[in-house]
Amino acid sequence: MDRHETALQKLHEGTVIPALPLALDERREFDPVQQRVLLRYYLNAGAGGIAAAVHTTQFAIRDPKIALFEPLLALASEEIGRYEEESGRVIVKVAGVCGPTEQAVREAEIAARYGYDAVLLSPGGLPGYTEDDFVERTRQVARVLPVIGFYLQPSVGGRAFSYDYWQKICGIPNVVAIKSAPFNRYQTLELVRAAALSPRRDEIALYTGNDDNIVIDLLTEYAFTQDGVTYRKRFVGGLLGHWAVWTRKAVELYEELKQYRGCGEIPAELLRRAAEVTDSNSAFFDTANQFAGCIAGIHEVLRRQGLMKGIWCLDPEEGLSPGQSEEIDRVYRMYPHLNDDDFVRDHLSDWME
What we know:
Layout: H1 3-13, E1 16-18, H2 32-44, E2 49-52, H3 69-87, E3 92-97, H4 101-113, E4 118-121, H5 131-142, E5 147-152, H6 163-170, E6 175-181, H7 185-196, E7 205-208, H8 214-219, E8 221-226, E9 229-240, H9 247-258, H10 268-284, H11 294-305, H12 324-334, H13 341-351
Helix pairs in contact: 2-3, 2-13, 4-5, 6-7, 10-12
């Protein structure tokens, strides 16, 4: 089995995939040194994959005046390759691609050039597309690289899709996974049902992107009975902006949750921790202000840990919302067991070399 096949098998079995933030300096210019520090943090924290050029990385990297899409993919791939060589671990390399079909195909071709294993295909920013247009777009991108489908919440540019749409997406041969992130129980359930009842059910890995419901998603086994046969499906991992912070603890939590796959009894303590993780996410993602400070909130936590020099975003207007810093203070005080500050403190100097 070659490296790419091993990575896809790992994706299928399930793993922790943080969404990579973009490291900038005080001039809002790319900081490759600090970007490598971030990548080393995720890799040494035990993440099994990295998703680059996704929403957390900021879609503006594709602006011709900024032109960071390809440089970022190149740097991330290089750093992951170095880590794989040193550790013997294979890391799933995921590239975010977006835009109209032609752009999405072109971005997938760039990702393939740098050795990425799959692309996360964003549905955002295409108000004129019909569901059939999205299906055809997925087919074309899947001819370039394996595709991770994406149910993106409307509040950050996504849209609601029908059950029929997800049936068609599940039927595309090179769709290998789907990230469910509508932040909506009804829509998540519909997506899972489409995957469970698809003839390709065993070929599609489900990943939670519901940052508001991470633990419950990873604990739940879904069952759907059709024509006297019961089909079961569960989320095998997460591809999450939330996991871009406190990643070491996220990996430990994920490994703990795996023990309860197929187990009839779920400890009440895990349900309590589910609420704690969701509450922490509300501070990081700025739910009080409709996610306006979600990227800056992630940056702020990383800044406090010394993993970022500042919270700068490509858009000068993008930053923390009023009261958001205080909310981050609050969850730090309330849930000290969820942060990995000690882990970062012990290893930060090594990652900076």
